[in-house]
Design goal:
Blueprint lengths: L4 E5 L2 H14 L1 H4 L7 E5 L2 H10 L2 H17 L4 E3 L9 H5 L9 H11 L4 E5 L2 H4 L3 H8 L3 E3 L3 H13 L8 H16 L4 E4 L17 E3 H14 L2
Parallel strand pairs: 1-2, 1-3, 4-5, 4-6, 6-7
Helix pairs in contact: 1-11, 3-4, 6-11
Length: 230
């Protein structure tokens, strides 16, 4: 029996992409139409944003833990969260979590290491880009990282919260992402982390100036492997 996957959701588009990826890719290993049992719980994004904007990561952790506890009660064997930003609270969550967790940045870092990437561009919310989530994990893998400049970070954050989380994907914004990625390529980056789980819905790998590391789908694939592991 495959393990039961619990998804702690935050923003709808990223959570939905993670769920769909698990359901679409698991049949390769499990057979036609089969995937592990999956349960998702999510508090409203607005609840998270109050605490994220205030920098209150303990309150963010409380929301994540609330979801985790609900997932555990319905039988989830482990948890994932398709939201990079709130991973800043994951260590606090783990201290009281009734079930184990997979870390989205570790899924990204493992793939980067396997592909020989050494310097990653990090894109995401302004809280993610300036926060510790990726630098702390990548350091363990001997990988360095770069982030856009402040003006670019503010614009990316605006696109995420005004457009992407609302399922608005414009060509103008897609080209802006490509321009930022080209700038980071010129600064020596050899791959780009799509570190907001909605960014893979707008950045096209075949048209991107750098190889992409899709955090949403990499986490989903890691969850399938964990679910099928002995």
């Amino acid at each position: 029996m495959a393990k039961h996957i619990g998804i702690v959701g935050c923003s709808a588009e990223g959570a939905a992409l993670c769920y769909r990826t698990i359901c679409a890719e698991a049949p390769r290993e499990m057979g036609e139409h089969r995937h592990p049992e999956i349960t998702m719980h999510t508090h409203p994004l607005s609840d998270y944003m109050v605490y994220i904007r205030a920098g209150d990561w303990e309150k963010v952790a409380e929301l994540m833990l609330s979801s985790t506890q609900k997932l555990a009660r319905v039988g989830a064997d482990f948890a994932i969260c398709p939201d990079n930003t709130i991973h800043q609270s994951l260590q606090l969550v783990k201290q009281e979590s009734p079930i184990p967790w997979l870390h989205i940045a570790e899924a990204v870092a493992e793939t980067a290491k396997q592909n020989g990437f050494e310097r990653l561009a990090i894109l995401g919310t302004k809280y993610l880009m300036t926060g510790p989530v990726y630098p702390e994990v990548l350091e363990r893998f001997s990988i360095t990282c770069e982030i856009p400049d402040e003006k670019e970070r503010e614009k990316i954050d605006e696109i995420i919260f005004k457009e992407l989380v609302n399922a608005v994907f414009s060509e103008k914004s897609r080209m802006y992402f490509n321009d930022v990625i080209e700038n980071l390529k010129q600064r020596g980056c050899d791959a780009v982390v799509l570190g907001c789980t909605e960014i893979p819905l707008i950045v096209v790998p075949d048209d991107c100036p750098l190889p992409t590391l899709d955090s949403t789908r990499l986490l989903a694939r890691a969850a399938v492997r964990e679910a099928l592991a002995p």
